[in-house]
Amino acid sequence: MVSDAPVIRAVNRLIASASDQRASDIHVEPNDDGLAVRFRIDGMLRNAVRLPAAMKAPLVSRIKVMAGLNIAERRLPQDGRLRISVRGNEVDLRVATSPSIHGESVVMRILDRSKLALDFKALGFDAELTRRIREAIARPHGIVLVTGPTGSGKTTTLYAALSELNTQERKLLTVEDPIEYRLPGVIQTQVNPAINFTFSTALRSFLRQDPDVMMVGEIRDTETAQIAVQAALTGHMILSTLHTNTAAGAVSRLLDMGVEPFLLGSVLTGVLAQRLVRRLCTDCRHPYEPHDLPAGLQDLLEAQRIRHLYEARGCARCGGSGYAGRVAILEFLRIDDQISRLILRRADTPDILAAGEASGMRSLFVDGLLKAASGLTTIEEVLRVASGED
Fold first, then answer.
1. Residue 233: CB partners within 8 Å, gap ≥ 6?
2. Checking DSSP bridges between strand 78-86 and strand 286-288, what pairing results, if any?
3. Is the Cβ–Cβ distance between 223 and 247 less than 8 Å?
4. What is the pLDDT of residues 280-312, one digit of tens each?
5. What is the rounded CA–CA span in Å between residue 26 and residue 32?
6. What was the pLDDT predicted at 194?
7. Among candidates 218, 198, 228, which has minimal Cα distance to 147?
């Protein structure tokens, strides 16, 4: 059944359709009466197609064969990777299977290098923020962190930073879980917990490779945090991610992990927090004057001198959703002398936030409002992802 032509065509059609619709993920979900397939487009799941129950086993098995997984093992989750040509473009897919009561569920993450924007402007950075982030990553040593929830584009931002630093004079090493995109000129390594090859062990081994820049996929534990700090102290630039909601919150998280304040204050260069919002379709967006908004929000719009916002209408180009693509809303905390002194005193997150805003930091929410005012997104999208972070 796995080699049957209809099954092969069905899988190829699904991948091609998802790629054409700019989907980031394909969700294959078995249920009582068949197989539901959904695409995640611009961060939102949409129903794609329903397949009959007879397709459940052969379709999942075909995907597993393509990804080099064990088709006989249906009781345990498996991870794999495959490459396929779609409309002449090579597309990588990261495949994850998981057992369920109705059969195996599959999620395929689409990694299309042709649609990867490794440019700060394309990601949503304005000229001033681009200047600040370039200044931070261009230092000979230090730590620059990107924070935010899962799926907020942190890795893409780090890849953009790596592409800026990727010159003949520098040696760049990364340790990731998993490697999402291959970057030419960068030595990329994937962690393997099964053989105890973790972020901390990889980072320790990297120090013997004479690197200039090291990217650590995520600082998850005290050991990784402390090795990263030591690496920065000995003359390396460290790029990494952290799961915190705000830029100022990253400082408290690292202190809670056991990093000494006097070390953190001397090596931390900057922290970028980000979220992804859906980008308005330029063909059908429509301007309007905001009225009847909550008092606090109305005051904030007036303080920023925002007179017009835009709404999503929907057209043929965007499939009726009113949105096409995504853009980041951002806040960047530059660690200056004042914030270093606050770190030394183990100051609370609100104090660090206040010091950052006094030195020119724009919060996630305000950056979102300004992007809504310029027609990049809607106020509803900003409220959806950043309303609790200001």
1. 141, 263, 266, 267
2. unpaired
3. no
4. 999 999 999 988 778 788 888 888 888 899 999
5. 20
6. 86
7. 218
The token duo for 56 is: 């459940």
Distance, CA of 109 to chain centre: 13
Q: For residues 338 and 174, give the distance between their C-alpha atoms in angstroms, rounded to a whole number.
A: 31
Structure tokens at 66: 């393509």
pLDDT tops 70 at residue 182:
yes
- What pTM, to 2 d.p., does this model score? 0.89
Q: How far apart are the first and last CA of the chain?
A: 54
205 three-class SS:
helix
The CA angle 310-314-319, to the nearest 5 degrees, is 135
- Between CA 99 and CA 21 the distance in angstroms is 28
Residues 6+ apart with CB under 8 A from 9: none
Q: Which tokens sit at 348?
A: 């609370």
Contact 171, 210 (CB under 8 A): yes
Contacts of 207 (CB under 8 A, 6+ apart): 231, 234, 236
Backbone angles phi, psi at 32, to 5 degrees: -55, -45
Closest to 217 in 3D by CA, of 206, 205, 203, 233: 203
CA–CA dist 140, 236 (Å, integer)? 7
Phi-psi map region of 210: left, alpha, beta (phi>0 left; psi -120 to 50 alpha): left
For residue 303, give the amino acid letter. Answer: A
The total number of residues written for the chain in this structure:
390
List of long-range contacts for 185-191, beta carbons under 8 Å, 24+ apart:
186/162, 191/217
- Residues with Cβ within 8 Å of 332's Cβ and at least 6 positions away in sequence, in order, are 129, 132, 133, 247, 270, 271, 272, 273, 361
pLDDT of residue 388: 60
